[in-house]
Automatic annotation (TrEMBL):
Residues 1-146 form the SHS2 domain. This is Cell division protein FtsA. Residues 327-359 are annotated as: Disordered. Residues 327-338 have a biased composition (Basic and acidic residues). GO terms for cellular component: cell division site; cytoplasmic side of plasma membrane. Keywords: Cell cycle, Cell division. It comes from the Bacteria. It holds the Pfam family PilM_2. InterPro entries: ATPase_NBD, FtsA/MreB, PilM, SHS2_FtsA. Coiled coil: none annotated. One of its GO terms (biological process) is cell division. It comes from Fusobacterium necrophorum subsp. funduliforme B35.
Amino acid sequence: MVQSSDELSYSIQSALRSLENPEHRELEKVTIGVGGKCIQSKTRKLFIEFEEREVQEDDLEKLYELAEECLEAGELVLKREMYNIKINNAGIVKNPIGLVANRLEANVHLIYVDREDIEKLTDAIAEAGLEIENLYLNAYASLKSTLIDEESTKMGVALVDIGEGATDIIISKNHKIIYAKSANLGGIHFMSDIMYLFHVSEEEAREVYSAYIKGEMTEQYISASGKRFVKEDVEKIIDARIGDIATFILSTIQESGFTGYLGQGMVLTGGVASLDRLVGKINGQTGGIVRRKKPLSIRGLEKPEYKMATVLGLFLEAIEEEMELQQKRNDEEVREEQQQDELEELLGSQEAERRSSGEAMVKIKKWISYFI
């Protein structure tokens, strides 16, 4: 949640200044991710009917358009998915395009946000002199950077990213996103609990939390800002907040209706996943298979950390989308070249035919002249 768009805008501008490079390239566009309690989702079972023919890409788009008609004005789709696709009331098909049918049916899942809920964020970016190029779902970005190449997304898995300010949950089955929900629960709330219960400043609370999450509290006490804190007391505070997060995770999975779909259990990532006791506590409360996973390694970042899951996923999404757009442009250029070649071939054929016809007429006239 953005408390002040002015402060965020100033922070963005400061970050931009630190990113200046020798080539003096100015950043003009940014990709941003959205998470937290503003995330909403819904699924609709829809169908369209038409005269019997091959199913086309446009038919799938019509189903998406029908689903989006249920949204209120100002609601913005971040991610959409289609599954349980059927034609002619028959069994489920993976890809209906090219199949002959007169009825197309599917479950359409929309994940969206109200524009007003992200207004401070978009305003801050505009005030910093930047344009938003892409707007993505944080939870999907984290999934993409951690599990997109795994069998987990086929067998069924709940990816839980516990970050600084939010816990994002996304459920995937058969490589499809079937549910998503977020709550404003994260590392910042551990620190606020420490501030309140220990009567310390935000800076001191952050120092205590940081020392604990890094495993630096090996002794019975930890010193921070000249004060000593009992490790057991810190753990009680941490455990209480982990309990809240575990309760949210469990209730979200139950309300999704997909409890029996999680063949690969639950995967934790995000900054708070660094807590060693997190897995055991959540496993004990939810009773499921729980494991942690860091995002994949990329060139220049061979040792990624849990906290990098979302930002790496946003990077991968933006790159993938740009590659798809480039591929479409390339395909369009190839089609145009083919059409041009076909046109030139046709014109050349017509010219050759015209010349051939003209030569034949000359020969006929010459032959007739012999009899005149």
